[in-house]
């Protein structure tokens, strides 16, 4: 892990967001900030931990609905996790 994340090419975005911006949110998690910017996940309770449980459930059951839930969550995380112009307008720089 150190070799992967210790690279000079890896940037800790948390530190940049914390030091250079202000958000009227309780934390700086990607889900919290994305929701503030107007992103909506299709799942009522999206989380990485939940997706691991869903995957385990799908492996055991082969349930197509569970598989679709995983696919929807992953798509939302990839597509909707990208900034939109309207959300970026809400960011107030502090430095």
What tags apply to this protein structure?
95 residues, mainly alpha, flat
Question: Your description of this structure?
Answer:
This is YprB ribonuclease H-like domain-containing protein. It comes from Methylacidimicrobium cyclopophantes. Residues 10-79 form the YprB ribonuclease H-like domain. InterPro entries: RNaseH-like_sf, YprB_RNase_H-like_dom. It holds the Pfam family RNase_H_2. The chain is mainly alpha-helical. The chain has one domain. Helices cover 57% and strands 4% of the residues. The chain has six helices and two strands; from the N terminus they run H-H-E-H-H-H-H-E. It has helices spanning 2-5, 13-20, 30-36, 48-61, 64-80, 85-88, and strands at residues 21-22, 92-93. A two-stranded antiparallel ribbon has the order 1-2. Helix 4 (48-61) runs antiparallel to helix 5. It is flat, with a radius of gyration of 16 Å. The two termini are 32 Å apart.
What value does the Rg take, in angstroms? 16 Å
* Average pLDDT score: 81
Strand order of the largest sheet: 1-2
Strand content: under 5%
Specify the structural class: mainly alpha
Q: Helical percent range?
A: 55-70%
Indicate the low-confidence ranges by residue numbers.
none
Task: Please tell me the total number of domains.
Answer: 1
Number of strands: 2
Q: What is the 3D shape?
A: flat
Could you give the topology of this structure?
Elements (H helix, E strand, L loop, with lengths): L1 H4 L7 H8 E2 L7 H7 L11 H14 L2 H17 L4 H4 L3 E2 L2
Pfam families: RNase_H_2
InterPro entries: RNaseH-like_sf (IPR012337), YprB_RNase_H-like_dom (IPR038720)
Protein name: YprB ribonuclease H-like domain-containing protein
